[in-house]
Every structure is written in C-alpha cells, then in structure tokens.
Amino acid sequence: WQQHEAPRRVKRAWVIPPISVSENHKRIPHLLVQIKSDKQQPGGVIYSIKGPGVDEEPLGIFSIDKFSGKVFLNAMLDREENDRYRVRMVLGAHSPSLGPRPDPDPPALHPQLRAFALDLGGVTLEDPTDLEIIVVDQNDNRPLFRQDVFTGRVVEGAEPGTCVMTVDATDADDPDTDNAALRYSILEQGAAGMFSINATTGEICTARPGLDRETMGVYNLTVQAADMSGDGLTTTAMAVIYLEDINDNPPEFTKEEFSMEVEEQAAGVDVGKVFVHDKDLAGSPSWLAKFTILEGDPEGAFAIRTDPHTNDGVLSVVKPLDHEVRDRFELTVSVQNERPLEPSAPVFRENPRRISVLEGTPPGTAITTYTASDPDTHQIQTLSYALLYDPADWLQLDSHAGTVRTKRELLHPSAFLQGGWYIALVLARDDAEPPLSATGTLSIEILEVNDHAPQLQPPAGVLCGRPGRGGTLLLGATDDDRPPHGAPFHFQLSPQHPQLARNWSIARFNVTHAVLAVLAELPEGPYSLPLLLRDSGTPPREQQQLLNVSVCHCGRDGTCLDGVLAAATAGAGITLGALMIILGSTILLLGRGRGGPGEQDPRQGGPGGPQLSPAPLNPVPAPQDAYDINQLRHPELFSPRAKPPLRRDAPLSSGTPLAPRKLPSSPSDIEDFINEGLEAADSDPSVPPYDTALIYDYEGSGSVASPLSSIVSSLTDEDQDYDYLSEWGPRFRRLADLYGH
C-alpha cells in the first residue's frame, strides 16, 4: 500500500470591505461595521482592534465590542486632516506562546487599524485583517481668494472683450466633488456695467464701449467665488481696475484772443502767455502741448515755447522791434499734443466689401451685412446706415443693423453693371456732437446664370443638293448668357429623327459655328431640319430648333444656278436693300404661274402673276408644280400641310388664327393685297415671328423665276462675279452698273 498525502487546507481571506463614513458625523457613537470570525469556538470569541485612532494618535476615535465584533465611531472626523484610515489583514493562526507576530509588510501610507480574533484563551483564531475607513467629504470649507485685492489696468476706449485681469480662489474640500467646484461673479461695479467675468476661469474683461478715463479713471469691483457650482459657500474680494490714458482730447485755448504788450527794442524777453486746457492725464505725452506761430510774423521776431509745469504757451521776442516801423502784431498760434490725437470717426474695416449674388435673386433676399466701427470708443455712440448711392434702386438697407437686401431682381445684362459688377455706396454716421460719418463701397458681382439656350443664327440657308463642293452650309448660334454659359456650342441633328442622318451631317467648325453637309444627292426644294443646340453652361441648356434649308439646282462648280436663287447665291454680299429690289423686280416682272382663264396682271401685261406660297415645314421636298394666284385672292382655301411653329413673341393664349381676309374691291390691286397679308402675318401668333425670314415654295419648272427661298442666303461675296446682272434686262442695268466689273 502506498500512503497518500492528505490534501492541504486552503486558507480563506478574512476580508472586510471598505467602510465609508461622513466627516463631521455628530451621532456618536456610531456603528461602522460588525466583524465576525467563522472559527468561532464553543465559549465565544474575543475581538480587538489596534492602530491610529484606537491606541495611537489620535486616540479613542474607533472602538470595538470585544464579544460582538461591532466597530464604533466615537468622535467626529475631518476629511481635510485625514481622508481615510487603513489597517492590513494578516492570515494564519498565531499562538500567544510564540510571542508577538512580526508585521510582514512595510508600514502603510495611512494610519492602520488591525482587527484580531482570539479565543477565550488568547489564542489567535484569524490572522489580523485590514480594515479601511474612508472619510466622505462634506462642504464644510468656504472658497478662499488668493489675495484680498486684485489690481489691473486697461487703456481707456478699449473695445468690448478686452481682458484685463484674472481673479482666482481655492477650496479645501474634495476637488472631485461639487464641494470644490467654484464659480465667479461680479457683485458690484456701479451702474454702467462696463466689465464682465468668466464664471469658470475668473477672467475679467471689458463688456461695453465707453471707458473714458476723463469721466472715471478707476473702477472698484466686488467679485465673489462660490462653491457647489455657484450655489454653495461664498467669499468675496476686491478687483481694482485703473484706466490708462490715451490722447483722445485735444488741447484747447481758454479764449479766442489774448492781448500783450512789449517795449520796443526789447529782445530775449517773455511777452506773455496763452493758456490752454487739456482733459488728458497731466504730465503725459497726451497732455503736453506744442505751440506753433502760423501767421503774422514773417520776419521771425517772435518765438513760443511750452511751460513744462502749466502746459501754457510762453510768447517771447527774439528780435528787437521798432514802434515807428510797426506798432501792432496779430499772431495766429496753433496748439497740439506731442502725441498724435486718436482717430474718432467711424470707419469701414473692409472697404470695399465684395460679394457675389446670382442674377435673378428674388426681392427681399439678404445678401450681406455691411457695418462700420467707431474708434471713438470712449463715448457710447450708435451708428446708423443709409444708402448713399444705388443707381438702379436695386437695394434696401436696414438703418440699424446694416443688413443689405435685394429690392428687386438683379438683372444681367444691365447698363448699371461695370464688367459684371454693381457698385453701391453705404453711409455710416454716429450720433456724437458733432456727428461724424464714413463711406463704404459695396461691390456686388452679378453671377451669370445659364437661363438661355443658344439660338440658331440664321435660321435658314441655301445649299447645293450635291455632296461635296457646294453641298455645305455654315451654321451659327448666339446665346444671351455671358461666359462661361455660352460657347462652345454643340450642334446635332435631332435625336428624335434618326432618319435625317441618312442624308445630312453636322460637323464642328469652331466654338460658335458648325457645317451642315448633304450626304446624298437631294431633290431641289425646301427642307425643314430639326436641330438640337446645346451650350456649355452649368448646367447646360439645350433647345430643339428648325433649320429651313433650300436645296438649289447645282452648277458644275457646286453653285446654285437658276433664276433668282442663283442671283442670291452669287450676290450674298449685296446689301439688304439691293436684294429687296431684286425680289420686288422678280415678283413684278418675272413671275409666271397657272392663272385661270382671263386673269391678267396689269403690271406685267400678260397672263398670270407671281406664284407665292409659304413652304411646308417638313423634311421632304415640295411639289414641283406651281400654284394658282387665286390662293392669294382666296387665302381661306389654303390648307397648310404641316402645323407652323408657334410664335415665341406672342402670348400662349392667342393661338387662334385670324379669320380669312376679305377680297379687295379692285382684284388687280395685288400689291395692296400682299401688304395686307404681311400685316396680318405679323400679328398672327400661329406663324413664325415677324422678324423671321419666310421660305416660299418652288414655283414650278415652267416659271422664269427661280425659287424665292434664296433670299435668306447668308453666303459671303468673296470672289463673286456680278456680270450676270447685265443679262437680266434693262430693269437690272442699275444694279449691273453698281456691282458689275
């Protein structure tokens, strides 16, 4: 068999949790805790404690009932003297025969209490245990200022917020509790309330303008510190603030005129004094006067100096005077301080004030607050504001706060803008006596908003219907917006009509122009192409627009050859007046149609008359046969093949076309009839704008005249040959003389 070692007994700690007791506890004795040993033997256990507060200084504070183990507090505690009492616990049995048990640990930082458990024979049942008693703080200490009187200095006229000094206090209570949380306040400083104090830091600063040493040179403040975050115990101290002088008062003569006498031939003698008064600190550079003779002494016979004691001016003679030559002198004398006088007029610190506002900003919008400051802070003054210059009457100004608001929409472009800036002047005035003022410049940049889409210019053109030479047209656009919301422009065929790409293409020419080209040979006639134009603004604006194109009969060199169209194509450089003459001559002389039997133009002497008809706005060529002149006399019979575009210059509500016109009394008066039709078209909201070039239909192969749509051609007149005009007959001879070679 094998003898097994018996299991060893694990010692348990005899632990007593910390005990808290409030300082200044007045119910004495007070039970703190009861300790009890689990090794209680038959016949009872004896308990005892030792250490500071029991058998060591301070004596008698704690005691224990030796039979029950109850620990009592026998005296009031002061946390500020000792914030806790500690004992240490030692485990293990101890026989009294072995003598005192040595302390295994070094002395503790705080007084130690030891609790012992003994049987009736004096044998230790438990090792000594640590007993910790924590003293809880009470608010039993007032704050104390570090000194009874605090002294500070600040210049007169200091702006509000200028810090002068700091007062501070201490509190002996627990800093981790509200018992030592201090708050500062000013109890008394006079009616003006010129100073304020930071409640947490105790820093004293100026609170209002108007510190004037000449009015009050010293301020005596009563300051208070209170614990419990301002609701507890309090204490007070004095804060004395001295105002330092600045030169805010000029010296002044006591009267406007002084009279003196001097013996002739006297030199180097004093004649008399001129007396001055200065409110600034006597003896300071702000008080010392300096005199100057301005007029009345061209020979330099007099001199003036300052009496250092009285600050008066002493006039003396430096050159002998002759009574017979001159018996009277009138001297003009000025006085000023040695230190320059402080400025006192209002001033705009930011001048000019520059701001940016979006065009179209609605009325009543606050755009800035433009205020001035008054350096004359030793006087309590109020500034008021007014608009001194507002040429467009765009603004309104709060006379007290200086807030600037829009009065109406800020428009762009405007004659009142200078390079996109609007200039206004603001007047600031104080209420001193006499009042002083300052002027501030308000520069407002009107920021461009992209609120316009590009417009096709011109909206019509002529080109040869053959790919290659002559089959191109230069397109342009304009935009009412300023950069960067305008060019570069983007031209494209309308994405809603993809079939257009089979016959047409658009390529960029430069930032404002593009080139329209035909891709396949097209029949002659008018075409209406929907284009999409987009600018480069942010965000970009785009708009679909119609381009009216007339495809002409092409010559070998790619130019339009037949009739008036050829003339317009070759003569694009001709003035508008000349082109109208050509058009009028063509209508009156060359027009031919399919008039009814017996119809004869009295101005032409032959059958028929001019055949004119508005072109249908669709992307297919027009019929190749001519129209009857009866359509001019009976417009109610004309039925357009496509709905014409709505006029952009007419109200949306006026979309009903005008009633058919009444036939004129004289059927032969075609000119008046046409003029009446033009006037009706100008006021009809269902047709293109009055300033839009109208495209007329192809007159037919039997007509001498070519299609009139060439009138809108915008080709240049470079290298054009106008000799063909001489072949048009006697009525065009004048034009041939003007433009022929």
Automatic annotation (TrEMBL):
Q: Where is the Cadherin domain?
A: 13-145, 146-253, 263-337, 349-456, 471-561
Topology with respect to the bilayer: Single-pass type I membrane protein
Q: Write the record's keywords in alphabetical order, separated by commas.
A: Calcium, Cell adhesion, Cell membrane, Cleavage on pair of basic residues, Glycoprotein, Membrane, Metal-binding, Repeat, Transmembrane, Transmembrane helix
Instruction: State the coiled-coil residue ranges.
Output: none
Return one GO MF term: calcium ion binding
Q: Which one GO biological process term can you cite for this protein? A: cell migration
List the InterPro entries. Answer: Cadherin, Cadherin-like_dom, Cadherin-like_sf, Cadherin_CS, Cadherin_Y-type_LIR, Catenin-bd_sf
GO CC aspect terms:
adherens junction; catenin complex; cell surface
Compartments where located:
Cell membrane
The record's listing under SUPFAM superfamilies reads: Cadherin-like
Q: Please tell me whether the keyword Hydrolase is annotated for this protein.
A: no
* PROSITE patterns cross-referenced by the UniProt entry: CADHERIN_1, CADHERIN_2
What role is this protein assigned? Cadherins are calcium-dependent cell adhesion proteins. They preferentially interact with themselves in a homophilic manner in connecting cells; cadherins may thus contribute to the sorting of heterogeneous cell types. M-cadherin is part of the myogenic program and may provide a trigger for terminal muscle differentiation.
Q: What is this protein called?
A: Cadherin-15
Originating species: Mohoua ochrocephala
High-level lineage = Eukaryota, Metazoa, Chordata, Craniata, Vertebrata
Name the gene for this chain. Cdh15
